[in-house]
Amino acid sequence: MRRIFVTIALAALLPLVTPAAEAVELIPLTELAKPGRVLIMRHALAPGVGDSESFKLRDCATQRNLDSSGRAQAVAFGKRLARAGVTRAMVYSSQWCRCLDTARLLDMGAVEELLALNSFFRRPQDRDGQLAALRAFLARLPVDGVPIILVTHQVTISALTGHGAASGGGVILALDGTGDPRVLGAIEAN
Fold first, then answer.
1. Which among 54, 71, 116, 189 could disulfide-bond with 166, CB atoms 3.0 to 4.6 Å apart, if both were Cys?
2. What percent of the chain has pLDDT over 70?
3. Is the pTM of this model over 0.85?
4. What's the structural domain count of the chain?
5. What is the extent of the structural domain holding 109?
């Protein structure tokens, strides 16, 4: 009962943690193949909401993880990327297991952990610092570089872009040398 109450209370606080997500126009995945593009995507399907109170960063058994549908979704999205002309990308991920697994299953190459992509769903006090670090990271990326894929959580996507994403979906950004790249549109999940 306590866990249900905590989940409901956290869900009620979510609007205070992130701005309301707006609808954004869907665009073709081929947009990501252009220089200076970033896909900030939500991890693939992982049943549930948040993580348990016993959550430990390096212990996947304490986290909400991808199920078989989520693993298949991530593999299929990787194949979609390849068909769209994204043959190489720099891939960064939250340190949460469901994000790292999604990033690896995309099969786009090496995956680098990026703390700024970690969830702050249960830690709203971390929101501003993480967003500042993420914006600084984005500002340093070359505006004419290879595609970048950032695998993260709903709260991070909403806070950065003002737009939501379903599990396995995301938002494509155009780098412009600032920490506030232009939102081009959304990519649907498989």
1. 189
2. 87
3. yes
4. 1
5. 2-187
